[in-house]
Design a protein that fits this description.
Elements lengths: L2 H9 L2 H4 L4 E4 L10 E13 L5 E13 L2 H17 L3 E11 L9 E14 L1
Parallel strand pairs: 1-2
Antiparallel strand pairs: 2-3, 3-5, 4-5
Length: 123
């Protein structure tokens, strides 16, 4: 399984899906509304074990986007629950930011960024 598919499957659970209109890699899907989740995998490292199996570590960045602070925080809480339920994931950082509105909406976007390491064994 690809790392993207694995991360998507990890995030695409009812506890999260019920709170967002979209979960997409890199950019929000065209036509989708807020709140949404964007994720990226900027780096993967592979370490070959003596058995011939690879230990894979992927850096994952998840952005929880919403029009209110409370919505962004609620989504981030659910993402953290899911990520931390997998004992091989390690949360590295959580940051928060606000972007001014770029569309016709007067309310900007509240963003909670969650960065974690995903570890697994690959073939």
């Amino acid at each position: 399984m690809s790392t993207f598919a694995d991360v998507y499957d990890e995030l695409d659970v009812s506890a999260i899906r019920n709170k967002v209109s979209d979960i997409s890699p890199y950019v929000r899907a065209r036509g989708s509304s807020f709140p949404a989740i964007i994720f990226s995998i900027p780096e993967e490292t592979f370490e070959r074990q003596s058995s011939g199996v690879y230990r894979v570590q992927a850096a994952v960045e998840v952005q929880c986007l919403a029009r209110s602070v409370q919505e962004a925080e609620d989504i981030a809480d659910k993402v953290l629950e899911v990520v931390l339920a997998n004992c091989l994931n390690y949360v590295e950082s959580i940051t928060r930011e606000y972007d001014e509105a770029y569309d016709d909406d007067s309310v900007g976007m509240f963003i909670v960024n969650i960065n974690y390491l995903k570890n697994y064994m690959g073939a």
